[in-house]
Amino acid sequence: MASSPLRLFLALTLVLLAGCVQWREYELGERIEEARVPEPGTGITVADVMAEFGPPLRMSRDAGGYTMAWEYWEIDDYRVGFGLGFAGADFLNIDWGRARVEGDFMLLGFDGEHRLISASFEKWNRKAGGGQGVQAFVSAVGVVEIDDLLEELSQHTWGAQSLRRMPTTLNQQNRMDSGDAGLEQRGSSTWVGQHSLEN
Amino acid sequence: MLIKPRLPLILLASLLLSGCVQFSNQRGIEVGWQDEVVARLDRGSSTRADVLALLGPPSQVIALQDETVLYYLFEDADGEGMLLILYNNIEIRTHYDRAIFFFDDNDVLTDFATQVRARDGQ
């Protein structure tokens, strides 16, 4: 008999708290080991590199040849949310979220004769954003934003790139998803550099 | 009185009741032809027309200094998730099957590479 009120309380808590935990894990591409990054000036060609790593995920021509990039991303997105119905304020929701990213990025430059002339590698494991909030009635605004990190590769939209909104289309020759004007990593700001004319 | 014996069951079901989801998402050009391509193409003799005839239109065309690159991409995402009432966990893995072909200013194949993930039955 003594446990009945406790059970009732737990049942009511489940219903009224209306809480939820979400943990989403995204893995894009394959890991790159820093020890395998090729050394420039040793006669390595693009054929050697592609035999080791496969075709690049990003590619662009540059002044004297071309640039290729390989990348790996691991994104963890944690979100917790619950309503305050148990406290008599059922019109309020509390949200908390955090995102972390871990990844590898290898950038290689080749001259016009397909010889490796530059190489750089970066490995990161860092916070990618987060927030908390109290919102009325429904949680209309997310506290974690990672959509820009999950975008498909630009190759899928290559043919449609000339049909975008006018400022973007006029900037086509400077865009870094065209293969003609350089390349950029996921999540790069669109408010500086070659994208700034589009805003 | 009927509620009492059922309440623990309801609570237990609320905690343990779980859903499972499995899903996949594909974008781009199917590249299940790796062996065939490698067998039929030769550096220095195959042409852009040969590649296009074998594989069809590419995902992207890149004009280099005096070269052309055809890039084929197939993006394959799969995942699974556990959906509890109070806790959800979803894992999504994305793989990139891809092929790249370099041609000189005479449209002759100079370099190429492919990377295709092994699948069941291949």
Walk me through this protein's architecture.
The complex is a heterodimer of chains A (199) and B (122). Chain A has helices at 3-17, 46-53, 166-170; strands spanning 20-29, 58-61, 65-84, 89-111, 116-136. Chain A is mostly beta strands and 199 residues long. Chain A has 2 domains: 15-144, no CATH class; 151-199, no CATH class. The mean pLDDT of chain A is 82. Chain B is α+β, with helices and mostly antiparallel strands and 122 residues long. In chain B, strands 1, 2, 3, 4 and 5 form a 5-stranded antiparallel sheet that branches. In chain B, a hairpin with a 5-residue loop joins strand 4 and strand 5 (109-115). The radius of gyration of chain B is 25 Å and the shape is rod-shaped. Classes of the chains: A mainly beta (199), B alpha+beta (122). The interface between A and B is large, with 41 and 41 residues.
Task: List the keywords.
heterodimer, A: 199 residues, mainly beta, 2 domains, 14% helix, elongated, B: 122 residues, alpha+beta, 5-stranded antiparallel beta sheet, 3 helices, 24% helix
Radius of gyration of chain A: 24 Å
Quaternary state of this entry equals heterodimer
Number of domains of chain A: 2
- Of all protein chain pairs, which has the greatest interface, and how many residues does each chain bring to it? A-B, 41 and 41 residues
- The helix/strand order of chain A is HEHEEEEH
The percent range for helix content of chain A is 10-25%
Q: Give the class of chain B from helix and strand content and strand pairing.
A: alpha+beta
| Helical content of chain B (DSSP H or I, runs of 4+) | 10-25%
Largest sheet of chain B: 5 strands, antiparallel
Low-confidence spans of chain A: none
Number of helices of chain A: 3
Percentage beta strand of chain B: over 45%
Total beta strands of chain A: 5
- Secondary-structure element order of chain B, N to C: HEHHEEEE
Total strand segments of chain B: 5
Total of helices of chain B: 3
Instruction: Round the mean pLDDT of chain B to the nearest integer and report it.
Output: 81
